[in-house]
Amino acid sequence: MKKVAIQGVQGAFHDIAAREYFSDIKIDLVECITFEELFATIQNGGCDYGMVAVENSVAGILSHNYFLLNEYSFKIVGEHYLRIVQNLIALPGSSLESLKEVRSHPIALRQCHKFLNALREKGIRIVESEDTALAAKSIAENKLYGIAAVAGELAATIYGLDVLERGIESNERNFTRFLVVENNANEIQPKDYTDSSYDKASISFTLSHEPGMLCGVLQVFQSYGLNMTMIQSTPLPGKEWEYKFFVDLVFCDMESLSGALDNVAKLVHSFTITGLYQKGETSMQPSV
Predict the structure, then answer these.
(1) How many CA atoms lie within 13 A of 12 on its CB side?
(2) Domain boundaries defined on the chain
(3) Global model pTM greater than 0.90
(4) Element (H, E) at 149
(5) Looking at beta carbons, which pairs linking 29-34 to residues 24 or more positions away fall under 8 Å?
(6) Is 264 in contact with 205 (CB distance < 8 Å)?
(7) Quick one: 2-83+175-185+192-277 is in which CATH superfamily?
(8) What is the pLDDT of residues 12-59, one digit of tens each?
């Protein structure tokens, strides 16, 4: 049985994503309240893998998690896309008219900004919490009437809450991308990989402050037929206005990837291949 660290508690979307990704094996979830705790748990050997949300199609990039990826230098071994359906849930017998406060993780709140803005105009407080399911759990355990959580339907089922409103996200194409990471210090070499199912790579690097440096890197990707699906920068602590770039690439064969990365490594600094894995697929099938 593998131990998988998640941010949040049972019923959180990290819980659902982990169980879907590892559906072929038995896993033991290690609940972490914060992402800092999650990364520290992996570092200290408290689990085999970590499930880390890095991007939402409505709320945007979780930039702090890229900062943590840079700090801990874990390897990415997979990704999973989860369609997120948010619900307004509260104690049985509650109604919209009885609410005084709504709690949830800030990213979940941003996914539902239109619905929540309408509640705010009615005088209902919107309060940030550490986790969607943890907010639901707290309401259930403490019998907090007048307070609702924004969370998945699984959280409502687990903690015995009623769903007051279903599908309150501002856009139904609401997806979160999760990375599966492990604490592996081994250097990744594309030529050593023979698994033909691998078609996505994650890399990181820094650049000199010279005109055209990033453009040169992008031209290498183009010349080798690589599709750049994401680029994100994060500041380097202690080096003001210097950044590390995180890039995701989809490729057709290892030879093209290896050739491209060999050339990119000559143009950049602190070059690292942070992951080789099979790209995930999106589905409109909602999360549980």
Answers:
(1) 31
(2) 2-83+175-185+192-277, 87-165
(3) yes
(4) strand 147-151
(5) 29/3, 29/4, 29/5, 30/3, 30/4, 30/5, 30/6, 31/6, 32/5, 32/6, 32/7, 32/8, 33/7, 33/8, 33/130, 33/131, 33/134, 34/7, 34/130
(6) yes
(7) Periplasmic binding protein-like II (3.40.190.10)
(8) 999 999 999 999 999 999 999 999 999 999 999 999 999 999 999 999
- Report the DSSP pairing between strands 200-206 and 269-277: antiparallel
Residue 117 to residue 199: CA distance in whole angstroms: 41
Residue with tokens 């790579």: 201
Instruction: Please determine whether the domains at 2-83+175-185+192-277 and 87-165 fall in the same fold group of CATH.
Output: yes
pLDDT tens digits, one per residue of 159-210: 999 999 999 999 999 999 999 999 986 777 776 666 678 999 999 999 988 8
Q: Report d(CA 247, CA 274) in Å as an integer.
A: 10
**40 contacts 162 by C-beta, under 8 angstroms:** no
Neighbours of 12 (CB within 10 A): 30
User: What secondary structure does DSSP assign to 21-39, as a single string?
Assistant: HTTTS-EEEEEESSHHHHH
CATH of 87-165, one of 2.30.30.60, 3.40.50.2000, 3.40.190.10, 3.100.10.10: 3.40.190.10
Q: In whole angstroms, how far apart are CA 173 and each of 83, 87, 118, 123, 193?
A: 7, 15, 21, 29, 34
Name beta bridge partners: 50.
5, 181
User: What is the identity of the amino acid at 158?
Assistant: I
Residue 118 has pLDDT above 90, yes or no: yes
Q: CA nearest 25: which of 49, 53, 52?
A: 49
